UniProtKB/TrEMBL annotation:
Acyl-CoA dehydrogenase/oxidase C-terminal domain residues: 284-451
EC number(s) reported in the record: 1.3.99.41
Acyl-CoA oxidase/dehydrogenase middle domain: residues covered: 164-272
Keyword Mitochondrion: no
Residue span, Acetyl-CoA dehydrogenase-like C-terminal domain: 468-590
Natural source organism: Aerolutibacter ruishenii
Protein name: 3-methylmercaptopropionyl-CoA dehydrogenase
Family: Belongs to the acyl-CoA dehydrogenase family.
Record keywords: FAD, Flavoprotein, Oxidoreductase
Function: Involved in the assimilation of dimethylsulphoniopropionate (DMSP), an important compound in the fixation of carbon in marine phytoplankton, by mediating the conversion of 3-(methylthio)propanoyl-CoA (MMPA-CoA) to 3-(methylthio)acryloyl-CoA (MTA-CoA).
Keyword Lipoprotein: no
């Protein structure tokens, strides 16, 4: 059975010592987010996730969700409902939401460590409230006044949850192919008809209502993505005054049988003329849906981080306890029949890989959260614009890299257990299975790569990249004489220079052959992630040396950074070589010749 202890010291270090989030909160006018209040919130989040959610993780995997075919009702695992009630009673559902709709108005950044802890403790349970935040964002920015009044308050206070309904059986990421239709009615509502698949938390009895945000086509809609509208379709009908009415014509048709996250209800949802209301303008639905999607993508990145943390904690504990052979240099514990496996270099390689990716990834993701707060709350228009560009640039990196690294970390952690990791007793195989979905939903790694390179770099002229490179340049200049980080400055500068060169090369080749973007995208994304992490590891060492942390903590950061620069950052060499090889190595072989 795996266990979980919230890494509060490192969470606080990332938030306050490295990023300086407390100073940012004060500067941005979050008067309620004082350091003592934030510390209290983190302590209570740790208590809730450790004592309430973590013990239910194996229960959810073992029991899963069940569907009553006659009624379409879904039963969740034992204890999930009680945990959700405690979550609502604690006010967690409204932590980052606007006070005018019942929220606490705390910074978006503060939601990141909460989500990380939830995902470490119980990823499947965390999927039930996950998309409510995105639904709130979509309605807040694109809903009408009455829609915000009717739907946001119960979403914020946790009486209702939200979903995101995009995918259909015949189309995944290519939303231009979707067939769900919305027929206008005389009373201003729409009759929504179609089938959506892979709908997280599409049906359950945790709340009084479920608010589905559904993409559909109007009868006169143009073809492709330019003809998609967004509709809010509740499980129970909702009137203009927010009154909940009779059951709507939306039903769970089946539950997906999945590799992992068994405790999460992944539903096929059938809409049969269900009553809905349009959100935003006709044929402009993707704008509102992307407000949900970007929120969800960052949330899924934190799922990868959370799973990595729990896996590494348990692998480290096991490596300290498990006796196996002697160290090659001689017995380290001569009073024992064998040495613990943590003395062996390959076990240390796996543990340090996890540690470097987790602790660097934590700072990287929290920094993205700060950009959301700056983009929303700064009084400086230019600063808001830059933060928005930086957040958009970082979102695919956070989502894709933290989930790819989540698969790697859960793999390494399981490997530390040897054969014991493959059996269910220690809970490691569940973490590995659960991690696999994170690279897939809310856009696969390939989709994130195309978003980064195709949109954020090519279409938007690399505004976010320029902002990040300016941060790197500024850090290197300011720390040129800092002995604590001197060994990292030149490698970091070199990586930043190559990053710019690769970007220019891809742009030049893409002008002649658009396939160059698709061919380079994955490697470009992963290259970017490793360079971003190098920057945050250099900054983490500088921050730790300047902090009041213990000498052991400072040594841990310093040696982990050295490991990262020496053994993980060189992965960029392979990604750069793949990028430079061009599209021909991928596109020349005829599709019919793959099985020749």
């Amino acid at each position: 059975m795996s266990s979980y202890k919230a890494p509060l010291n490192d969470i606080r270090f990332a938030l306050f010592d490295v990023i300086g989030a407390d100073a940012e909160f004060e500067r941005l006018g979050f008067d309620e987010a004082s350091r003592d209040v934030v510390d209290a919130i983190l302590d209570e989040a740790a208590r809730f996730t450790e004592t309430v959610l973590a013990p239910l993780n194996a229960v959810g995997d073992r029991e899963g969700c069940t569907l009553d075919q006659a009624s379409g009702d879904v039963t969740v695992p034992t204890g999930f409902k009680q945990a959700f009630d405690q979550f609502v009673d604690g006010g967690w559902t409204g932590l980052n939401s606007p006070p005018e709709f019942g929220g606490q108005g705390m910074p978006q950044t503060l939601g990141f460590p909460l989500k990380e802890m939830i995902n470490s403790a119980n990823l499947a349970w965390g999927n039930f409230p996950l998309l409510s935040h995105g639904a709130t964002e979509a309605l807040l920015h694109f809903g009408t006044d009455w829609q915000r009044e009717a739907f946001l308050k119960p979403l914020v206070d946790g009486r209702w949850t939200g979903t995101m309904c995009l995918t259909e059986p015949h189309c995944g990421s290519d939303l231009g192919l979707l067939k769900t239709r919305a027929e206008p009615r005389a009373d201003g509502t729409y009759a929504v008809t179609g089938t959506k698949i892979f709908i997280t938390a599409g049906e359950h009895a945790l709340t009084n209502n479920i608010v589905h945000l559904v993409l559909a086509r109007l009868p006169d809609a143009p073809a492709g993505v330019k003809g998609i509208s967004l509709f809010v379709v509740p499980k129970f009908k909702v009137g203009h005054h927010g009154t909940q009415g009779e059951r709507n014509a939306v039903r769970c048709g089946s539950l997906e049988h999945k590799m992992g996250i068994h405790g999460s209800a992944t539903c096929v949802m059938n809409f049969d003329g269900a009553e809905g209301y349009m959100v935003g303008d006709p044929n402009k639905g993707l704008v509102g849906m992307f407000a949900m999607m970007n929120s969800a993508r960052l949330g899924v990145g934190l799922q990868g981080l959370g799973l990595s943390e729990r896996a590494q904690q348990n692998a480290l504990r096991y490596a300290r306890e498990r006796l196996q052979m002697r160290a090659l240099s001689g017995p380290r514990f001569p009073d024992k029949p064998a040495d613990p496996i943590i003395v062996h270099p390959d076990v240390r390689r796996m543990l340090l890989t996890c540690k470097a990716l987790i602790e660097g990834g934590r700072v990287m993701s929290y920094h993205a959260g700060v950009q959301l707060d700056i983009a929303r709350s700064s009084t400086d228009a230019a600063e808001r614009e830059q933060a928005d560009a930086l957040a958009g640039f970082l979102t695919p990196i956070v989502k894709a890299c933290l989930t790819e690294w989540g698969v790697e970390c859960t793999y390494n952690a399981l490997q530390c257990f040897g054969g014991h990791g493959y059996i269910a007793e220690h809970g490691m195989e569940q973490l590995a299975r659960d991690a696999r979905i994170t690279t897939l939903y809310e856009g696969t790694t390939g989709i994130q790569a195309l978003d980064l390179l195709g949109r954020k770099i090519m279409q938007l002229k690399g505004a976010g990249l320029r902002a990040f490179l300016a941060m790197v340049d500024r850090f290197c200049a300011e720390n040129a004489g800092n002995a604590a980080v001197s060994e990292f400055i030149d490698p970091l500068r070199g990586q930043a220079t190559q990053w710019q060169q690769l970007t220019q090369q891809i742009g030049q080749r893409a002008a002649a052959n658009p396939d160059e973007v698709g061919a380079a995208a994955y490697d470009y994304l992963m290259y970017s992630g490793y360079v971003v992490l190098a920057y945050w590891w250099a900054r983490s060492v500088a921050a730790s040396e300047a902090s009041s942390q213990s000498e052991a903590f400072k040594a841990s950061k310093r040696e982990t950074a050295r490991f990262y620069f020496a053994r993980l950052l060189p992965r960029t060499l392979a990604h750069a070589a793949a990028i430079e090889s061009g599209a021909g190595t991928l596109t020349t072989l005829d599709a019919d010749a793959f099985d020749a």
